[in-house]
Amino acid sequence: MTAQNKIVVIDDESQIRKILSITLGAEGFKVIEASKGKEGIVSVANNHPQIVILDLGLPDEDGLTVLKEIRTWSNVPIIILSVRNSEDDIVKALDLGADDYVTKPFNTAELIARIRANIRRTQQPDNQSVIVNGDLKIDISKRLVYKNNEELKVTSTEYMLFYLFFRNIDKVLTHNFLLKEIWGPVHTEDSQYLRVFIGQIRKKIEDDPAHPQYIITDSGVGYRMKLLSN
């Protein structure tokens, strides 16, 4: 079993670890279990997994502390799996560097889909200049966006939104992250900026902007570019 097949599960519930070990094992992954935060940090450091599944309610330290610690030395995708389902908890975890957030009780098929989406994203080469998603395409070297191979007229701000979404397909990007990346740290509370521009790009790429297929809203949290078949 190679390092690319490993998943570290950090969760104090033995039943959850057992379910994930059986389910993910059937999908071809080797699951390394940890019941405590510090044990989980050591497991991630020693095993170099392809992905980490992290609970927030750990017995020795809060999962957010574990998340922050891992993020100081690793970019491994981290999916939060927790009973905490408030918008504040989700936003905080994503802003601290989590790649996705799944609430308990969870659907195993959905979790597996999230795992595979995060793996696909990390396998994209950093120097990839053309990214395709469904009928959409971005040419980063030329700063151009296409739908059905027809160039879209986009502003520089709209292009930056497209760039961030294409670079993070199927990942929730929080309001705070998008505002900070595009308008700077002084505008992190100006979510109305975001609503206006998201509305504009939806009009350009969605067949029905009122029922978007590409740019999906995670209510109170942020936006996600859905991965569609090419």
Structural summary, described in words:
This protein is α/β, with parallel strands linked by helices. The protein has 2 domains: about 5-125, 3-Layer(aba) Sandwich (Rossmann fold), CATH 3.40.50.2300; about 130-225, Winged helix-like DNA-binding domain superfamily/Winged helix DNA-binding domain (Arc Repressor Mutant, subunit A), CATH 1.10.10. It is about 40% helix and about 20% strand. The protein has helices spanning about 15-25, 35-45, 65-70, 85-95, 110-125, 155-165, 175-185, 190-205; strands at about 5-10, 30-35, 50-55, 80, 100-105, 130-135, 135-140, 145, 150, 175, 215-220, 220-225. The strands form 3 sheets. It has a 5-stranded parallel beta sheet, with helices on both faces. Strands 6-7-8-9 form a 4-stranded antiparallel beta sheet, with helices on one face. It has a 3-stranded antiparallel beta sheet with strand order 10-12-11. It is globular. The two termini are about 30 Å apart.
